[in-house]
């Protein structure tokens, strides 16, 4: 059998899929029962994890929210997934649970404490998607702070992760909790310590006041593919989410593996998951009909509002018949600007049409179960990726993927059944190891602390 594919499911606590279609249920995103049902179905179908993306942003162009964004529910409203996760932990026992916390907004001790708590509550099934924050122009307004430039946000993220790693790996020895009721000893003071950090952006002398969970450091994910984003991933990430065309993704993966070796890590220690949209139905014809219905629910105005959320760039004021001006700069997200520049750049109209069809996620796989898995196998072979981050279907959930694609993947021997008791890291790395690999910078913090 080939190395099993890793299968994660992408969600956000907002409108997903084509919410205007009558079969779409993402309008229930503020109902806990919606999430509990989804998590149980994901677990029963044997996928590796459910990822709840998050940010504080919303579309803003020329200092205002485009009316199309509010009218059509584009990237807003959006609820806080960290409030939903404990309920999902309670009703699952194998499903990994991954969420986002922003290094631009949440301070390291807050991230470290929330994630360590969730690692306990999930019994080692939690992952952190490290982001500098999508929709940054809106987020900065919301927090009343000047917008920090793109590359500097990644410098802050690097220092943030360094301190967070110290808190997870350095404060508590493995055998610090004694729990001797007779002697009245809860924890051994010799095995618990404050860490010190004096970095370019964060300073701390402190103790993480929750002991680490089964993974110590939550499994670390990252999703920015600009130069500084790639470096952050290469240095710390154990899983990377990518959304692009196959050719761009192939380059991103090989470049990030190369950068990982420059940081002294095994290039294979990062698992790359392609954002994959599967438009699947029992027959090919039904799948293509569904695709046409989905595209018809989205206007070019909405595509422009969505593009502005990811990039801060307003395509609606540009000449539709020319490519995006190559001198355009943005301090919001760069990946979705850079992928449409350069030789053979598409026109603005083509970019909008691409966003109307696919948003940031690249072209979908369309067809019956056999056809979509053939297409997915070809993408895996071309890119060298390790699996998929599956996008919600037209219903806003994953029912068609879980019911039609998972059995096909299993029949082809491409996935293995997750087991109770596995940590998220152990499962995704495939070696059962709960803790960071020895070549990860966080492992050196643990080694140094355990020698104290
Ligand atoms: C599949 C995927 C998931 C993402 N999830 C989040 C998220 O939950 N929160 C967020 O703020 N940004 C998220 N992003 C955006 C990235 O973190 C990043 O800001 C964006 O890709 C722009 O990259 P750059 O900052 O390197 O230019 C996601 C991106 C991708 C491709």
Automatic annotation (TrEMBL):
Keywords from the UniProt entry: Flavoprotein, FMN, Monooxygenase, Oxidoreductase
UniProt: FMN binding residues: 54, 100, 150, 154, 226
InterPro entries per UniProt: Diverse_substr_monoxygenases, Luciferase-like_dom, Luciferase-like_sf, NTA_MOA
Domain Luciferase-like: 30-386
Keyword Flavoprotein among record annotations: yes
Any GO MF annotation of the entry: oxidoreductase activity, acting on paired donors, with incorporation or reduction of molecular oxygen
Pfam family, any one: Bac_luciferase
PANTHER family listed in its UniProt record: ALKANESULFONATE MONOOXYGENASE-RELATED, C2H2 FINGER DOMAIN TRANSCRIPTION FACTOR (EUROFUNG)-RELATED
Family recorded in the similarity comment: Belongs to the NtaA/SnaA/DszA monooxygenase family.
Name this polypeptide is given: FMN-dependent oxidoreductase (Nitrilotriacetate monooxygenase family)
Organism: Glaciihabitans tibetensis
Record lineage: Bacteria, Bacillati, Actinomycetota, Actinomycetes, Micrococcales
């Amino acid at each position: 059998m080939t190395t099993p594919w890793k299968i994660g499911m992408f969600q956000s606590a907002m409108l997903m899929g084509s919410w205007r279609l009558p079969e779409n249920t993402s309008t229930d995103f503020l109902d806990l029962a919606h999430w509990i049902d989804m998590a149980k179905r994901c677990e029963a179908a044997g996928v590796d994890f459910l990822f709840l993306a998050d940010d504080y942003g919303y579309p803003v162009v020329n200092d205002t929210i485009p009316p199309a964004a509010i009218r059509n529910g584009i990237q807003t409203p959006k609820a806080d997934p960290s409030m939903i996760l404990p309920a999902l932990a309670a009703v699952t026992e194998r499903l990994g649970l991954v969420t986002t916390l922003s290094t631009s907004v949440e301070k390291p001790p807050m991230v470290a404490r929330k994630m360590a708590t969730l690692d306990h509550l999930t019994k080692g099934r939690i992952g952190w998607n490290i982001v500098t924050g999508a929709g940054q122009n809106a987020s900065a307004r919301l927090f009343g702070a000047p917008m920090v430039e793109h590359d500097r946000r990644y410098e802050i993220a690097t220092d943030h992760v360094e301190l967070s790693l110290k808190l997870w790996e350095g404060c508590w020895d493995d055998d610090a909790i004694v729990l001797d009721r007779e002697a009245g000893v809860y924890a051994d003071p010799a095995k618990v310590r404050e860490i010190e950090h004096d970095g370019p952006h964060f300073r701390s002398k402190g103790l993480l006041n929750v002991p680490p969970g089964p993974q110590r450091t939550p499994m670390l994910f990252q999703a920015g593919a600009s130069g500084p984003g790639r470096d952050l991933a290469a240095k710390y990430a154990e899983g990377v989410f990518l959304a692009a065309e196959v050719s761009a993704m192939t380059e991103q993966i090989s470049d990030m593996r190369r950068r990982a070796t420059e940081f002294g890590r095994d290039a294979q220690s990062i698992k790359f998951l392609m954002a994959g949209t599967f438009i699947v139905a029992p027959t090919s014809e039904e799948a293509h009909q569904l695709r046409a219905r989905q595209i018809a629910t989205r206007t070019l105005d909405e595509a422009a509002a969505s593009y502005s959320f990811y990039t801060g760039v307003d395509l609606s004021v540009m000449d539709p018949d020319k490519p995006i001006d190559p001198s355009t700069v943005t301090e919001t997200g760069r990946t979705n600007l850079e992928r449409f520049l350069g030789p053979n750049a598409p026109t603005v109209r083509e970019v909008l049409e691409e966003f109307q069809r696919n948003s940031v996620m690249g072209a979908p796989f369309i067809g019956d179960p056999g056809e979509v898995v053939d297409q997915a196998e070809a993408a895996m072979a071309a890119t060298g990726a390790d699996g998929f981050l599956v996008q919600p279907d037209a219903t806003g959930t994953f029912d068609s993927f879980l019911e039609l694609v998972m059995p096909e993947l299993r029949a082809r021997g491409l996935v293995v059944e997750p087991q109770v008791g596995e940590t998220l890291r152990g499962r995704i790395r495939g070696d059962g190891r709960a803790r960071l690999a020895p070549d990860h910078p966080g492992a050196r913090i643990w080694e140094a602390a355990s020698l104290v």
